[in-house]
Design goal:
about 325 residues, eight-stranded antiparallel sheet, alpha+beta, Phosphorylase Kinase, domain 1
Length: about 325
Amino acid sequence: MIAASEIAAALPKTLDTTDHATLGLPRGWPLYEGKVRDNYSLPDGRRLIVTTDRISAFDRVLGTLPLKGQILNRLSAWWFEQTRDVAPNHVISVPDPQALLAKECKPLPVEMVVRAYITGVTSTSIWTAYSTGERVFCGHRLPDGLKKNDRLPEPILTPSTKAEHGGHDQSASRAEILASGVVSEAHFDRAAELAHALFRRGAEICEKRGWILVDTKYEFGVDPSGEVIVIDEVHTPDSSRFWFAGTYAERQARSEEPESFDKEYVRRWLTSVGFKGDGPIPALPDDVRVEASRRYAAAYEAIVGEAFVPDLDAPLVRLQRNLSALHG
């Protein structure tokens, strides 16, 4: 297990942002900046995705966590390989610990969220809605008598619209999404089918490792042949919630929060200082940043089954060296 001191040593080396100049890329390659990933479109139909160390929650970028980009990129690449037989994906290669080379796709403007438990602390979470009396969530009728963190009768799909920068994603039912006209019925249903298949595979693998895959979100795109495929990331602590299976029942019986390895730790810290997504963003203390990264690394090791060995080179220098082959 990586030591907290090793993570702390990486605090001055976090990758907050990239651009053409710092990566040594041609200026003509279009750049799209997501909350965590910087995407460069190559002229040959490929996309370079650089996973920064940015951390987002409540639909806001909060700062950086040391080594987070490496952990996410490597873990997501591992999951893409583990799920390739149940859902086609966009991966071509992994040229750098923080970069992925992928097939260029047209993203569907809907996130496919699959939930197996009733939980969450955000204003849009299923538990927030349920605790205020709602019994229909994204078109799914929920039974009475559920406690926070209870398992749902079966995993449900709760899609959400993708907000612009600074906005909040909005959960919606299939009917509402289709009525909005942002995605076709055929593309929506294919993405929903793949999302359930991915979740089943992820839950099976996590169960073997002593974990519970609580909920997750998937993004899909349409490739040049018209096929709906998985893009972005799969089953990382950024997109997914994981609990320890071994202590879940006991803690649930005592109405205690489950032990988790995901960015819920950061959300809970923010909630404890009164931040729930609006207003000025509190600065994350270094000890919180280090502990959050330790949890990300622990998640990687528990899922993949091998030690996380970080590359401690200056990230921009390493990326420029490793990406030079993309443009000669």
